[in-house]
Amino acid sequence: xxxxxxxxxxxxxxxxxxxxxxxxxxxxxxxxxxxxxxxxxxxxxxxxxxxxxxxxxxxxxxxxxxxxxxxxxxxxxxxxxxxxxxxxxxxxxxxxxxxxxxxxxxxxxxxxxxxxxxxxxxxxxxxxxxxxxxxxxxxxxxxxxxxxxxxxxxxxxxxxxxxxx
Length: 165
Fold this sequence. Notes:
By secondary structure, the chain is α+β, with helices and mostly antiparallel strands.
């Protein structure tokens, strides 16, 4: 049985554990190991995750099948003062990919977006990440490109994507 659970601050170690297991197979062919380490440490530190959850209004959903954790998503309503929900993260353990779990997480975020009266969900995805194809199949459109400097000379090269309701 698959369960979706809204995460609390007590779940931050689990979120970090999933990220650390998911990122190397997802980004290992795209990013250097030094950039991968830098980004994981920056995005998944206790302080960053806690601030996202308690100060920035990010919601985290955890996906579980029976007793096994499969992945998580995080999102924020009213992104930048708009009536758009922002999908910040959606990651599945490698063994959970290709089984519909990502679609379940995404549908849960879309449902929450509609309930908050959002008119769309937006996200960024690395231009070389195969997840781009997943989002296209789920009805998202590429609306632009964005290069974001994240420190230490590293750059995130993303597509900006949106799905309007």
